[in-house]
Amino acid sequence: xxxxxxxxxxxxxxxxxxxxxxxxxxxxxxxxxxxxxxxxxxxxxxxxxxxxxxxxxxxxxxxxxxxxxxxxxxxxxxxxxxxxxxxxxxxxxxxxxxxxxxxxxxxxxxxxxxxxxxxxxxxxxxxxxxxxxxxxxxxxxxxxxxxxxxxxxxxxxxxxxxxxxxxxxxxxxxxxxxxxxxxxxxxxxxxx
Length: 192
Known about the structure:
This protein is mainly alpha-helical. It has helices at residues 6-33, 38-49, 51-60, 66-80, 88-104, 109-121, 129-133, 135-144, 149-155, 161-189. It has one domain. Helix content is 76%, strand content 0%. The longest helix has 29 residues, at 161-189.
């Protein structure tokens, strides 16, 4: 089994920082263009623009642990900055599963990278899944942080059964498109 070396960890740190920055860009784009639904669309927008960085990590450091660490940078962020208590779990579990699919399975390469990237992209659903599945606990946590009901109502404004399915389906679609775009950029600038 190939293990991560110090040089790998340094590279992973750089790629994790770039990934964090792409998520930040996706968040800002959604916040200023789709005010009501912006938080529900951050995972899909991130999937759309993070394909290149995922391909770099998967191809340049093809060892178990690299994808997990890159995705887990968001778990650390969600945990450190007081997001809903369970928000960090998907940001660790989905990258771990994606890492397993990418490095430990014998699926055909093209299918494997697509499947692993789609799974990885669901890592950013941690902050939004409780909006549907733990509504009361989420409201209590917001109130405990001193938020008023006006703010709470604004958080839940776009939350419905339909928005759940739309946001999850969009993650699948945009991860496919984002990886295709990423492959073009990767092949042109990073493959050599």
